[in-house]
Design a protein that fits this description.
Blueprint (H helix, E strand, L loop, with lengths): L3 E4 L9 H9 L6 E6 L11 H10 L4 E6 L7 H6 L2 E7 L6 H10 L3 E6 L17 E5 L13 H15 L5 E5 L4 H10 L3 E4 L1 H4 L4 H9 L2
Parallel strand pairs: 1-8, 2-3, 3-4, 4-5, 5-6, 6-7, 7-8
The structure holds 5-O-phosphono-D-xylulose and fe (ii) ion.
5-O-phosphono-D-xylulose (5SP) binds next to strand 2, strand 3, strand 8 and helix 7.
Length: 216
């Protein structure tokens, strides 16, 4: 039970965001996963800094900020100011990834890199030692409630091998279509952090659902 659970706020009731955050504060959730989308990198727009600032005021758990945007370098300080603990950028959105990761660390945050389903984990071989987290997308980013892509399990296992062979402490997070069944398989393959949106917030008892993910 060493793994972390990061419920995704994308599936909360935005009219009652504070109520959902209060529930998460009192639950077994470890981090609050915040999905920021720009309508350019992904075909959807979610929420941005004004909303993150409000979340920061009531959240009692670290904010795990998943940026699905082009040019994330432009927003590093804003993510920090909005309470970001982990700032995760997409491999596919960064031309100078090493520079971006350095700037995130310089701003005082943990740095994560996310991979789209088609991006091989082996592309991280020359940067993984600088990363606090690798986020493996198990759906195409942009929307909650999509079907889990089974090859993600294989990607987690390959990332685990890369990390263990080098004795690193980089965490492996998986995002998209996580439920008790896929979650179990991901943990067996070596995942450290499970993100879950619709599975948590569409359930009749989100607090219990988070606990069952935590107890996998
Ligand atoms: O980053 C994303 C989607 O792009 C996610 O964090 C989703 O919010 C996960 O939703 P579910 O697949 O768990 O419903
Ligand atoms: Fe996400």
């Amino acid at each position: 039970m060493n793994h972390k659970i990061a419920p995704s706020l994308l599936s909360t009731d935005f009219l009652n965001l504070q109520q959902d955050i209060d529930m998460l504060n009192a639950s077994d959730a470890d981090w609050l996963h915040c999905d920021v989308m720009d309508g350019v990198f992904v075909p959807n727009i979610s929420f941005g800094f004004p909303v993150l600032e409000q979340i920061k005021k009531v959240a009692q758990k670290p904010l795990d900020v998943h940026l699905m945007i082009v040019n994330p370098d432009k927003f590093i300080q804003q993510v920090k100011d909005a309470g970001g603990y982990m700032m995760t950028v997409h491999y596919e959105a960064c031309t100078h990834l090493h520079r971006t990761v350095g700037a995130i660390h310089e701003a005082g945050m943990k740095a994560g890199v996310s991979l789209n389903p088609h991006t091989p984990v082996e592309l991280l071989t020359d940067i993984i030692e600088d990363l606090d987290l690798v986020l493996i997308m198990s759906v195409n980013p942009g929307f909650g409630g999509q079907k889990f892509i089974p090859n993600s399990i294989n990607k987690v296992a390959r990332t685990r091998k890369m990390i263990d062979e080098r004795n690193l402490h980089t965490l492996i997070e998986v995002d998209g279509g996580v439920n008790l069944d896929t979650g179990k398989q991901l943990l067996n393959a070596g995942a450290d952090v499970l993100v879950a949106g619709s599975f948590v917030f569409s359930s009749t008892n989100p607090t219990e659902t988070i606990s069952s993910l935590k107890n996998l």
